[in-house]
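dumping the sequnces here before i forget
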Amino acid sequence: MGNRFVEKKVPQGKLIKVTVVFSETIDEIRINGDFFLHPESVIEAIEQILTGVPVTITKPEIQTRIDRVLKANKAEFVGVTSADLSGVIAEAIHHDD
Amino acid sequence: MTTDETWRILPFETNSAAINMATDEAVLEHVAKKESPPTIRFYQWQPSAVSIGYFQSLVQEVNQSECVLRGIEIVRRSTGGGAVFHDSAGEITYSLIAPENLFPKGITESYREICGRLAQGLQNIGVNAEFKPINDILVDGKKISGNAQTRKNGVLLQHGTILFDPDIATMFSVLNVGKEKISDKFIQSANQRVTRLVSHTDRPRSEIMAAIEHALLCGAPSKTTPLSLSERKKTLELAGQKYGSFQWTALR
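..and the predicted 3d for all of it:
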């Protein structure tokens, strides 16, 4: 149980800052940064789909979930990719790595 | 850009942060309803303000107590991107609001188109400006302009700032860049990465804005007319209920 903050500057891209509160599951997640996402409100849907999932979720599984939300909302990141974001989230929850 | 549709140029205005951001959204809504033509506006911030990107954390990015001490407003933008210090007298700010079918469909391509025009406008007055993806304009390799875009209901809004003569020390005192970074040494290194128009041209702001406006229009006809009454009403509503509210500013 705990909370963790991880930030990463994507090379040639933007900054991602992830804050997670977790136990055996992700209890709260907040994704911040200076990236772009069109439409912007989809960020809340991404945070929602990752809330309550077991912290054992892998990076590819995180990315699959994010990609599903992006596709359903015809949304697009600029300056970061779903792979970049998944990597930062995985780093935040896999605290023993 | 199209050459047959008449664009509207809004008269230059000086506003609070909430009114400035509300104006963009009000115009966007009216362009979406086809009640307003494609629009370009230049405006000033009074008092100086910090705007943060839609996805940014207020607490992480802004030194709020320093803003209060210096009388600097804080507003969250509807667009992504980074935190910006809008020095009242030290920058040029513009917004372009138009149907998105007037521009390339891809976000990156439309930045290239619009920022490319902006850089051309600066080149036309002898400033060696170039577009640097994703959303910056550089002069002699140093950043002079940051830009941000959103799209809603078929309308593209791009707003951006061009550094004219900003107070760099105040900029780094209100943006959370880490205490060690506010040293003279950091400000010196910032000066090596960021530049300003007064270092490259003697032209006044009004002439620079005219050059940028001309380049953004790219030959399209234009007419200077003010906001409609309906736009003004919507602006006041959005400034009061959204952009001026703590709930919105502290949204993330």
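Chain A touches chain B through 19 residues (CB under 8 Å).
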